[in-house]
Each structure stands twice: as structure tokens, then as C-alpha cells.
Fold these 3 entries.
Entry 1:
Amino acid sequence: MHRAPLLDLIQIYAAAHPGEAETVAKFREFIGRCPDCFERSLREGHITGSAWVVDRQGKRVLLTHHRKLNIWVQLGGHADGNPDIEAVALQEAKEESGLGQLRAEPGIFDMDIHLIPARKDEPAHYHYDIRFVVRHDGDGDFVVSEESHDLAWIEANDLEKVTTEESMIRMQRKWLNSR
């Protein structure tokens, strides 16, 4: 089953984050019920992959000022049928930042379900977002893509200066507590 590797990663995540049992249960139910969960065409929602991109020292995080959502968030995007969500997160980080020398750390870093508002011919739907820590071992020079108003390296300690988004602050806490 093409969903089994992701469910295995979620099982490991669930054991490490027992306080997130409700979110984990929602992911499991969605993935189990929807064989096409990796497809953007699934109107109720779909699996997405995101990257918590950190610099070599782990002190800064690369965020995008997302063009469609108009908020500062992590890099990431649609799986478009690819069940290897870690690879999706890496690819999205490369495409949205122009950065090379990226490598994902093992295991899921965070999981979040959030509503994407309706726009044009697309109804409101959910992103079941699987997030990975991605290290950048290069010089940090990025290129702003069409998907962003801007990109910025933000000190992990200073994330509240650009966002109050609950899932972003949760990732900040996880990151700072892991170092």
C-alpha cells in the first residue's frame, strides 16, 4: 500500500508526541479513508509536505511570506501524487528558495491540519501538512519564487516578530526545546 510508509512515520511520531494524539488520529483516519490522499484533486483536502528549513548552526529558520495566504510560514506544498512526503518537502524547499545543499533530518518534525480558504475555482479545503526539519549547509543565499512575496532568515528565538500563527509557534517551541 502506497500509504503504509507515511503511516509508519506517523506511528513513530505518535509515540514521540503523545500530547498530539487527536491530530495523529485525524491524520490516520484521513489517510486510511482516502487512497487518493496525496492528490490535489481530492477536494476535501490532501497531504502536503513542508520544510522547517534551518541554517547550519540551527539558529535561523527560512520563512516565506506566502503570496496566496499573505502570512509568514514554512516552505512547502502539494504532494501531487507523490507518497514520499519527505521528498516532497525537500523538493518544495528547493523550488521555493533556490537553495542547494539541503538535507532532511530523519522523521516527522510536526503535523498540522489547517483550512485553506476558497479562491477562484477552488473550494475551501484542508491541508494535512507533514513537516520535516531540513538543514541548509550552504551560504544561505536564496531566490524568491513566484509563490512568495518575500523570504527571510529569522532567528528561531525571534519568530514572534513575524508571526503569531499557532502552528509556527509550536514548531518554534519544538525546535528550541530540541537543541
Entry 2:
Amino acid sequence: MSGKPTLDTVAKAAGVSIPTVSQVMRGAGRISEKTRDRVLKAAKALNYVPDQKAAAMRSGENREIGLVINQLSNPFNAEVISGVVDLLEAEGYLVSILDTRDDAERQARQLEAFIRHGRGGLIWVPALDTPDEAFDLLAAHKIPLVTFLRNVHGDFDHVGIRNADATATATRHLLELGHRQTAYFGGTEMSIVRRDRIAGYQRTLAEGGISNGIIWDSEDNKLAGLEAMLNLLRCHPEVTAIICNGDVVALGASLALQRAGLMPGKDVSIIGFDDIQDAAVATPPLTTMSVSPHKLGRKLAKVLLDRIRDPDMPISISEISAELIIRGTTGEPRKG
């Protein structure tokens, strides 16, 4: 057969009308099982796939969802995406994923492309320095939207993390173990997430009668974490514990200690943030603030589905509490 298979070619092959094929493909209508089976077999033999864009134009419903995130290579983001996709695909939606890499201009092009291609909803981590115009654009097109992690605009649904509370819990754990020389480790830009995490860290130190502590920058990947940790050890050998901006940079710091002949949890304690799968199987296993990324992704998807189904419902703001998971990279400071 030449040409792209269509409703018409399937209808001819099955010996039925075009409306009958359309109803079978949509799972609608009162079609006998015998006819339905004949149509489906003909569609399979012809490699026919329904045109969802055409169906969306007819019904006014679009089953494609956009997910715009930063740093797709970060395992935390990958696990969140997995949770989003698992739930949305089970509900019959297709998810398209783009990575802004925290570039506001790149993000603007991606958002405009999503609008041009008529996505049915958007899950979005706003890039740093996202202008108000980006939010105005999405609002003007009435796109169901959930922002994630960075709650920089109050007029949309949002799912985030209680970041300051999480790092306060992590800092308190280190203080209870006896650590007094600590650092907040990781991140480079002062995003709202990192700002809140550092605030929780510094506030808890102050409550314990300790000065603000060290803030040590590092890009949030393993290699950068390894190099930054070696620099921290050279510049501040007195540090006995660090709280990290994420698990990936924490794992890099742990590798740096081992390269330097030191033992994570014995010579220097490390607490990560996220609880990605690699955290539990690292050597030694990483103590971390767990937010269960896969479950977090499912939560994001559910909030978006609620917005799609009820566009007029009140704005939903959900903040997830992190749980301290104690593993092998924390312990009392080594005496002497």
C-alpha cells in the first residue's frame, strides 16, 4: 500500500464506514465486538495510528502535556519525570519534555513552541530570571499550569518542598552529633530553593549559638562536587560536616573524601538532599533529606489533572516535607 494509512483505508479494509472506524478508535459508540475486532485487526495490519491532533481539534481536548525542567541530566529530575509520566500515561496523556538549562531566553522559545503546538497542560520549573511576560503569556492562553520547586508567581498551582525546614532538620541532626564546624555545600545561583535551604541552615546554627557557617559553591553534579570538596578541604580543614544542595553533589563530595584518604561519616559527615536511588546504594550509603522524587512526580501530575478537569477550582499550593534518612555518611566528629 502506498501513502499514509487513514480512517478511509482502514474502513475499506474492514468493510465498514469511516464513522464506525472513528468510534472504534475512540472507544465510543455501540459497536459489536465482532465489528470492533475486525476494525482493530485491519488497523493493525495497515499500521494505522489515530491522528490525535485532528481528534483534539474536533473535541477541543488535547492529550499532550509539556514538562519544562532544568538540568534533565540530574537523576533527581529524571526520577520526578518518571513519576509524572507513569501517572499521566496511565490517564491517556503523552508527555513532551524539554530542558531549559536555566536559560530564560531558551525557555521563552520552548514555551512559545508549546503554545504553537497546542499542548493541553504544562508542568514547569521556571528558569532563573524568568520575566513576568512568560507568566502573562501562559495565562493569556489559559494553559493549565503547575509550577514546580520555584514558587515565583502566586497565580498558578504549585508543588514544592519545605526547603528551609528540611535543611533545619539536617543541621539539627549534625549539631546533635556534636558538629560545630560545618558548611552548606553545593549550588551556584541564589535561586529561591537554594536561598531557602541556606536560610534554614543558618537559622538553626544561630539557634545553637554558632555563627552563620561556610557557604561553599559547586555546580550540582558529581565531578563538580568532587573538585569543590577537595578545595573545601584545602581551604577549611577544620570542617567536620556538610549539608548538600542535592544528592548528586553530595555523592561527588563523598568520592572526594575517599580520594583524600578520608572516610565519609567518620572523618567528615555528609547529608544530601532528594534521596535519589543512587543514595541508598552508594559506598557508604548517603544520609539524606528524602522527598521521594518519583512520588513527587506523581503528585505534580495529579495536581495538573485536577486543574485540567476543573479549570475554575481555587489555586493549589502544595509543599512536601522532607524526611531525614540516616545512613552511613553521618556520625560524631572524630576526636582530635
Entry 3:
Amino acid sequence: MHAVTAALIFCLAVVSSQAFAFGADGHRIVSKIAENHLSVKTTAAINAITNGGDLAELSLWPDRVRYIPTWKQSKYWHYISIDDQEQFANLRRHSDGDVLSALEYFYADLQNSQLDRKQQLEALAFFAHFVADIHQPLHVGRRDDLGGNKLAINWLKTPRATNLHKVWDSLIIDTENKNSDQYSQMLDRASKAQIDRWQGSQFIDWARESKALRYQVYNFNSAAERRYPLIGSAYISRNKPIIERRLLMAGIRLADSLNRIFDPEYGGPT
């Protein structure tokens, strides 16, 4: 195994725990869907970067390193804060970056033939991760509740409160009781018309789509006497199709972005 790949996989193994597994299956699902839509040339290019490593597992690395001092600045790259009344055109952006600037940066990095293998591997990990993040509606979140992280909710019959961000990162996905391979196979049913439409978009469009889902995200319809909003079966049934569609869109768009980088003449399957 290439030394760079081994080093990153070692880092994953060392820090992997339930504390860091937050949203891991969502990222795996996106990467596995993307792999189904890569050209032969793109697949070969990615295998050369990863030395045959697993893109789905590589995409988890950015969540594991943001608490390490060397990468502490990356914690700002996973989201963008925008209040309801704000527009992206005149948005007050964080000085240390956000998910939009990070996507642009690592997309350009992956096109840079001068990068060494370690830099390519890191750029691929970050880019794959952030494509998934921007499609999760609460990664394009309100400032006051930190994208739902500060909004306590009651989840089903669980006695202890959790937060809304976790609901959309992992809890809704977990209700399907499928592993990431099974889930990606179930979701990867996009029509050619959908694929063509989703691929003809920019990073900013993905952010606008996530922001536009805010009404559904915060529509709890729970009893007023409860201390925290209740996430029950009705909320899950209403919103699971939304998060599943976002996972599918992210996978299709990740594949398209990687094909544009590594196989720009690829026109899709015939």
C-alpha cells in the first residue's frame, strides 16, 4: 500500500469511534452512488490517487481531522451560515472559509497536476466530503441555532434530548436499518432526465436548494406544551424522502464533478 494512503487510513483507524461516526453512513452512501456513475478513466485516476483505496471511507477523513490541531481551521469548511432573510449574493462569509469556498478550492486542487500524492489524496477526501455536506440542509444553516446543533429535540421515544442537526445527519437515515451498500443500491434509481438536470448546476445552486428546504426541516407540528419539539413518525415519513433525494443528488453530482476533472470528454453512459 502506498505510504500516503496508509498514513491516511491509519489516521482513520486511530480516531474512529462512535464520537466521530456522526453522519458517516450518509457520506458513504453518497460516495458509493458516485462510484456507480464514474467513467472508466475517472475510476482509474481515482484508484491511482488512492492506490485502490475505498473512496467511501476516504470521504470520512475530514470529519475525523477537524479536531486535530493541524487541521483545526477546516472545521469552518463543513457548513455555511445564512439566515432566512439573507441572500447568497451579499452574504457575510466567515473569514476562515465555508463549504462553498472549500468546494471551489478543492475542485481546483484536483485539477492541479503539480500536486503530490498526499495533496491529491487530501483534496479528494475533502471534496467528496463537502459535496455531501452541502446537500444536507442544515449544513446551510441559521446562525442562531448553529444549523440545528443548538436546537434540542425529542427523538421518538428516546428519553434524552438530542439536536436537530443530528436528526438530519444520521438519525433519519438510521431508521431505514440498511447498511451503506444496501442504502446506496436502493437509492440509485435516478432517471436520465434527473441526472441531466442535477448535473447542470453549480455549487451555489446546491446551497440554495438546501436553504430552500428550511421550512420542511423546522416544521415540527408538535404539541405546544412539550419542552422540546418532538420528532415522531409523521416527521420522519415526511422528511425521509427529502434527505434520501439529497443523498442521491449529491452522489450524482460528485460523480459528475470528478468526471469533469479526470475525464472531461466523458458524455455519460450510452
